[in-house]
C-alpha cells in the first residue's frame, strides 16, 4: 500500500513538472539547429547545419594537421545530418567548409559525449559529499554530475529536452522526480550549464536541495543514482556506453539516525591508553563525557580525554549540556579540572569520530561508563560503553645467581605496567626498618619523596633497568631484600600499591693466587695467577720482595694487574727481570682493594730516592716503613711489615701471600749408556727451567771435523728443539733417537736453553753390529716325533770342547783391537 501511494504521489508531481515546462516545448527544433563553430556530438542525428555552410554544397573537410591533405565528407543534406561514429568517430575536432587549409572556416566541432562523476551531497551536513555513504533520514540532499554536454544548451538557444537523472529505490523503482520540503524537481530534461552541474542549483544553499529524506515515502535502504543522455537519439545510435551516454552508477544509503559508542578494549592496565568510537549522523556534533565520576575526591582521578585530537574539543561548554531534565554534564563529572573529562566531538562525513583517553598511576582502578549524546538542544539519543581500568604489576630480577661479592656491579631489571617510574630501596640486618637508600643503605628513604629513592624510568615496552655498583655501598656480608615499587613509597606504606621484591646474598670479596713455579731459573719468565672476587676496578696490587729487591723500585710505585670479568688475573714476571734477580727466596703479596675499591695501603715517593709504604685512613696518609732507598726493610722484613699494614683494623684491604725461589739455571742429562747401530732409544734429563721452555738438543759424532774437498764428509748425529715438561720433582725434557743411520763412534750430547743461560754435556758410544741374542733352548722331542736316523753318508759330528775363560778374554781383546782399527779408519 505504501508503494502504491508513493507511486501516485510521484505521478502527480511528474504531471506538475510537465505543466511547469510546457511553455518551452515550442522550440522543438532549436536543439537540432547548429550555428558555425558549434559543438556537435557523435551519435546525434537530424541536425540542421544550413546555417554553417555557405551555398548548397554539402561536402565538409577535416584536417589531421596543417600539413595533411583534407579529408572530404559529403553529408548529402544540410537539414538532417547524423554525426555517425563510422564517419566521425576517428575524426573528432573541427570540420571545415573548404579543402584549402589556409582558407578554412569552421563548420562545427565534433566531440564524443561525456557524463561522469555523479555525486550526492548532504546539504544539511554542510554540503558534505556522501557518495557511497549514509545519509540520515532528516537531511536535505543534492545531486551533481560532470558532463561536456552543457555546450548543447549554452550554444543552441531555446533547446528543449536534455539529460535524465535516474534514481532507483531499494525496491527497484526508478523515480522521475525528487521532492524537498517545498517543491519537486523533475529528473528529466536536465540541461547542464557547466562542466560540473548541480541539479538543484548551488549545493551550499539548503533551498536548492532537491531531496528531502525526511519525507516518509523515501524508505530506508540503498538508492542507486546515474545520469543518461539520449539528446537527438545519441544513446540510441551509440548505445549505453559508460562514461559517454550513461554515467557510472553511484549509491547512497538512507537510514534513520542512530548513535553507537564502542571501546577498543574492555579492560586497560593503568598507565596505558584506550579509545572509544562514536558512530552517528555524519558531520554532527555530540557531547562525550566520563559519567558517574562526580563523587571522586581530590586524590581520585578518572581517565582523561587526550588533548589536541582532531574533531575533539575539550569542554567548550560541554559541561553545561543538559543531558536529562534538571541535570547537566558538570553534575556528572569531577569538580576538579572538569574540562579534562568532557568534550564536544564532531563526526566525519562517514559519521564516525574516535576519541582517545589516557590513564596514569593516579587513575583510580575502577569500571568507568563513557557516555555520548546528541548535541544541543538536548534530546534522548545517547549511548554508553564501559571500560575497566586495572592496576598493573611490578617485577624485579637480578643478574646472576643472586649471590654477589661487594664491589660487583649487579644488574637489576624488571617490568612495570602500573607507572612511569620504578622506585628502589633495600632492607636487611640493622638497616632502616622502612627501607634504606640503595647507594647509602644506612640512610632511610622518605615516604613519597622521590629524590630519596633510586628512580628508574619505565620504557615504552614496560621494562626498566638499573646497574647497581656495590663497591661503595658499605654493606656487611649477609642477606638483603631489594624492593621495586610503582610509587616512591617506603616499606610502611605499600598497602594498595604495586611492588615486587628480590632477595640477594652479599659476600665478602677475597683474593687467591699461585705462582706458575715454586722455583724459577734466572732468565726464565713465570706468572702469578689467581682470582679476585668483588670486581675490583683498580685491579690487584702485586708486591714482590727479596734481598735488595722490590718490583716497584724502577717506577717508585707498586705494580698492579687488571682483573678480568670472571675475576681471574695473571701477572707476568719476564725473562729480563728474572735474569737480573739474585738467587734466593722472594716473597709475594697480592693485595685486594676490597669494599671501597681503593688501595688503602699504597706507596709515596720521598726525597733522595726514598719510597714509603703508607696507610690512608679517612683521607689521611700515614707512612709505615721505607720500601726503597736508604733505611729500607729487606726481604722477609719488608713483607712482614706490608702484611701488618694491610692487617690494620682501619684498612679494609685484604691479601694473599706466596714465596718462590730464584736459582741459577741448570740442565742435567740422564745416563745414556752404549747403544748399537739401529737401536731406538731416548736421551732425557731434568732442569729447573720452566715448563714449555725450549731446549736445543744436539747429538754429534766425536769424529766429525772439517775435511778436504776431495774427502767424504759424512755426518752422523741428530739435532732437535724440545719442550720442557712438568715432572714430579724437577721439570723434565727428552728426545727420541733412531740410530739406524749412525756410524759406530763416540757421540757428544749437548743440551742448551734458548732463553736462559744454561747448558749440559755428556757422551755415549754407538757400537757396530747387533748385540748377542740369548741362545734358544733345544726343543725336546714329543712322543709323536720320530727320532731322526743318521744317513749312511753322514758322518757323526764330534762335539767340540766349550771355550774356557781364557778364550773369552782373548775374544774381548780381539774386539778391542778391531774397534781401534775402525776408529783409525
From TrEMBL:
Annotated keywords: Membrane, Signal, Transmembrane, Transmembrane helix
Keyword Chloroplast part of the UniProt annotation: no
TM stretches of this protein: 801-822
Residue ranges occupied by any DUF3821 domain in the UniProt entry: 36-236
One Pfam family, short name: PGF-CTERM
Domain PGF-CTERM archaeal protein-sorting signal: 803-824
Protein name: DUF3821 domain-containing protein
UniProt-annotated stretches for the region Disordered: 772-793
Keyword Kinase: no
Organism whose genome encodes this protein: Methanochimaera problematica
